[in-house]
Amino acid sequence: MNEQALSGLKQAASDGIISDAQADKLLPYLVAKPDVSTVFRDGGEADSPAHSDTETPRFVRGFHDILITIGVVVVLAGLWGVATVFAVLPAIIVLAEILVRRQRLALPAVTLTIATAIAMGGVNEYIYNAFVANIPGEAVQVFLMVFLLPPVMAIFYWRYRVPLALAGLFVAAALLALTGIFVVMEQITGSADVLVEYRLLSLMIFLIAALSLFALAMRYDLSDRYRVTRRSDIAFWLHLATAPALLYALLAFVFIGAGGSLFSAEESGLYGSAVLVICVVVMLMLIGIIIDRRAFVTSGLVSLIATVVAVLRQGEISGGNAVFVAMLAVGVFVLIIGIGWSSLRRIVVAQLPVGLQEKLPPVI
Questions:
Q1: Shortest CA distance to 235 belongs to which of 216, 251, 252, 250?
Q2: What's 361's DSSP letter?
Q3: DSSP characters for 12-53?
Q4: Degrees to nearest 5, angle at CA 314 with 309 and 317
């Protein structure tokens, strides 16, 4: 199917011209009739099949979006500087009504969603300083600070239908559920710091939460394998949040006995820990290749660089040189994956059962 036709169908669904259900019905028709989806150049020649990227959320539709977004950021930052967060929130609402609900600008919609979350962070800080700081128990304090974020994200999505807002709602709800669980654990155990005193149980809870978010992201992903509806953008943002959460939840098990000191030269198991870190990162990268989500590749870069630096320093390479050598090695590795992404996907996905291949994004 032609890349422009696929992009146009996705844009129509994103703009609300057609519903997600209608896009699902149109897509097989366009795939089955390539002559219908062919877009001609001015010279009358058909475009050659493009190597379209199924992981392309439409953030920017032109420099107009960028210009407006710059204005939004500057205005909100200036308003927060001369006033308070309680003046920023009404400004966000006004801008969202004009730029998102009326003009349906993609990049400003994302920016205003992020601004809403940041502004709620300011509100939560005010609540903490005014009411929560003297309440005993860290889990209770965190719970009282974040409990407003899920309903705000829910209202923002209901009003403006921004995929990031729904993904933010899911992540905020997961965070609220986590803190709620730890509040209950504090009450049951009488511990003031369950994260330290019940480390293994806490890590298991974090891992379950990360896996639950990943499962939710995959549900959206698999329901739109051609990625032409709003569901694919929701999955994109969920994967962007889930990938690092899943990575560091798994890595925490590697260092559960390290007393909180990562990659310490005094630890006799440095090389063993480094191998485990690399295995975890490579496993997540493999998952990213299979489901065609690069977030699983980028999320592990910091950990991969830290691992290589630690091993190089153990080999008596000076600190500065170790960092640059690690960056060079990891950079080359990432370039190989990025340049050969389609070929790698073709090789890896071909090894999977046919039934599973048919549910994944098509290999280009």
A1: 216
A2: P
A3: HHHTTSS-HHHHHHHHHHHHH-HHHH--B-TTSPBPPPP---
A4: 70
Write out the DSSP string of 291-343: HT-THHHHTTHHHHHHHHHHHHHHTT--HHHHHHHHHHHHHHHHHHHHHTHHH
Rg (Cα) of the chain, in Å, rounded?
23
Answer whether 50's CB lies under 8 Å from 364's CB.
no
Query: Residue 100 in contact with residue 59, Cβ under 8 Å?
Result: no
| Run of H or E including 163 | helix 163-189
Q: Are 154 and 120 in contact (CB under 8 A)?
A: no
What does the pLDDT profile of the chain (364 residues) look like in tens digits?
445 556 666 666 666 667 666 766 666 656 555 444 433 333 333 333 344 566 666 666 678 888 999 999 999 999 998 988 889 999 999 999 999 999 889 899 999 999 999 998 888 878 777 776 666 666 677 777 788 889 999 999 999 999 999 999 999 999 989 888 888 888 888 777 777 788 888 888 999 999 999 999 999 999 988 888 888 899 999 999 998 889 888 888 777 654 444 444 444 456 667 778 888 888 988 999 999 998 888 877 777 787 777 766 666 565 567 778 878 888 888 888 888 898 999 999 999 998 888 889 888 7
Beta bridge mates, 40: 46
Judge whether 226 and 5 are in contact, CB under 8 Å: no
pTM score, whole prediction: 0.79
If you count them, how many residues does the chain have? 364
Q: Quick one: tokens of 224? A: 């739109």
How far, in Å, CA of 144 to CA of 135, rounded? 10
CA quadruple 238, 240, 245, 247: dihedral, nearest 10:
130
